[in-house]
Structure formats: C-alpha cells, structure tokens
Hints:
Strand order of the largest sheet: 1-2-3
Largest sheet: 3 strands, parallel
Amino acid sequence: MVVTRFAPSPTGYLHIGGLRTALFSYLWAKKNNGKFVLRIEDTDKARNSEEATQAILQAFEWLGLKHDGEIEYQSKRDDIYAKYIKQLLDEDKAYKCYMSREELDALREEQMANKQRTKYDGRYRDFDGVAPEGVEPVIRIKAPLKGEIIVRDGVKGDISFQAEDILDDFVIARADGSPTYNFVVAVDDALMGINEVIRGDDHLSNTPKQIVVYDALGFEIPKFYHVPMIHNSEGKKLSKRDGATDVMEYKNMGYTPEALLNFLVRLGWSHGDQEIFSMDEMIHLFNPEDINKSASIYNTEKLEWLSSHYIKNTSNTDLADMLTDYELILTSHDKKEILLDALKERAKTLKDLADMAKEILSTPENYDEKAAKKAFKGDAITILNTFGAKLSKAENPHMPTDYHHLMEEVVNEMEIGFGKIGQPLRVALLGKMGGPGLDVVMSVIGKTETMLRIANAITANTNND
C-alpha cells in the first residue's frame, strides 16, 4: 500500500509550493488506494505558531484535501525520539559530543582559512576520556566516513553522494535533549509507514542524512520524489508579488478551490495537452514519475483563465453560496439567476463577480467625471426624462425584455440611435461606462430603483443640457 505524507512546519503560512507537494502526495495515495498522512512538524518550539497551524488546517479544509487518520504532531512524540536516540547510543551508532560552541567556531574559521569544507572533525567520535565539566553534550550520529550514498529518486533518477564530501557526524539531539529535523523526519516516516516521499527538491540535500538515520536504525528507506521548484516568469524564486503568499489569500482574492488545485497540478506535471482536470481525473491520471525534471513557471494568466472557466461552469445556486464569503448576499434575491448569468461570463474571480454585482445593486453615490461629461450632453437629459416617464407608466416590467422594449419605444419615438439613450442611461444606473446589458441591470434592480437612479442623475446633471 502506498503511504504518503505532507509534513509542514507551522512557523509561517502555507504557500503554494508546499500546497503543490501536498496535492501530489494526496493524488498518489488516492490513486493507489493508499493513505495520505498529515503531520505537523512542530518541534521548533521557539518559532512555532498556533495561528500558522490553524491556517494550514483551514487551507486543507477549504481545498477538500482530506488526510487519513488523526493529524500527527511531532511535539507529542518526544518519548519516541528519546527511545531511538538511546538505542543508537547503546549500539555505539551515536555518541555524546562535548565540543563547545567556541571550539566549533574556531574549527570552522580554521577550515575556511585553509579553504576546506566546514564540518565537524569527529574529535569525540571515539572519545573514551573524562568528559569536560560544565558542557552539556549534543548527540551526534556516526555517519559513514567513506563510500557513497545513493538516493533513489523517481523524478531525477538515482543520485549518488560521496559520504566524505557531504557528511559529517551530524547532530541528532541538541544539548537540551530536543531532537533535530533530519532525525525526527526519518523516524516519523519509518514508524508511520511512509514509503513514498514527495517533496520539494530543496530537501534533496537533507536526504543523505536521513538515509544515514534509516540505515542506523534498520528502517526501510522510502522511495523519494524531489519536485523542482516553482519559478516566476523570469526564472527566479517566487516572491509574494509573484504568488508566493498564504494559500488562504487565494481564497480572499476570489479563486475557487478547483481552479487553484487544477492550476497547481499543471505546475510541473502534464497529461498530453489537457488543461482542465476534475479531481477524479487528477487521481486517475497522476503519476509522480511524470513530474518534469526542470522548474515550473508560475503564470497568473493561466490561473485567471482556469478560475474563469470554473466560475462559468458553476451553478448559480452554488455561486450565490460562495459569494457570501465576499459580503454579497444573493441567496434569496429573486433575480440572482439573471444577474449571475450576465456577470459570470465576465468574471475572472469570485471577488470580481462580487464586486461587479455590488456595483449593480448599489445606488451610485457619484458619477465618473469623464463618463458623465460624455454621456450627459446635448439632449441626454430630455432622453432620460422621456424614458423615465415611459417607465413610470409601464405595468410591472420584470424581465430584461420588458425593459428592452421600453428602450426601443423611446428610440423609435425620438428617432435616435440606441447609443443616445444607452450612454446616459448606463451612467445614470451604474455611475460609469461599462457593465452588462442595461436591460439586465434594470431587471435586477427593478422599476422603483431604476426610476430613482434616473431621477438622481437628472438632478445631478441638469447643467449638462
């Protein structure tokens, strides 16, 4: 059975690079009817944030990525780590190192001066003397001094590391007894049955150390898939400006979970020329061995295109529910179908959709100066008065066609083009140029509100005749 995991550290927000590896891990587990484990790596007590932990869980809930079993917290596993550290000490596979910080700094300065790689020199590896007083020892593992360590990687292929070039006897427990990252990751993955690890290739340099821990404890080594980073359009590391922001900020910006997940699955993985994937299709088609070996490029236009696609293909009932997150209540509005049908073809995000709807539903407080100057000239006020009078006599106009017929009557009676009524009426109703069809706008806001807005515009622009 394939068992994967996502193991974020709650020291900051969950960004899209982390979310992508979580998605890949989730898809691979589900494809194989396996397990997807969520583990919170919260051993860094000084930097951990409960707020960050909750943000991670909130993001998973929003996106519908359901983990299997209980959430694992490393902070609750200290006894387990202590047990295995003791085992390594008892088996002479680890040892206490009494080297002080001053000694370590002096060693590094000497190595740098001699243009050598800075590393611990193993002086306490086989120490059998009297321990110096006043120094709380760290615990170091006995790493291989020679030979090679091979990482079996499903993305990059086999990668060989020379032990003498990359390893020293690295610390597995600090002086206060707290275990270090590479040690606890290996122990946790082994004990939790994680047999396939999908993660960013920024972790590749950690992998040989984790393999040393696996070997020392007699654990089976999982298969690794190290996923290349996501870059911006210039081929550089993502910044917040490019999109490296809190995953929940994507919700605030108005992207749907489906659009974001579809966007992420295509960052570094593909299936022919297919661009749109349902979750079922992702699970059925995804294979981590098909992940690209080179970095993927973040493309905002592609995300917006996907977002627009999903909005267009979402039912109006569901859209109305989703828009409540953007302070727009349409669930009981009798014209929500007309409004959303008109707007969702134009919206890139749910926030766009909400903002456009609010503009229609809110009486304009002022008028775009440039638009008003263009619209309210000549006989515009007379045309608005004529339309307003005709609308006041109309019996229960309801649908967009009802309002369109009234506009046609004015155009025909006054022998003018549609633009002559369209421009001043649009600015009167919306305060600006642009927007959906005027007949739709009037149908949505209704007869009384339409007449009010026309009257307001006439009052505000009587000097433009």
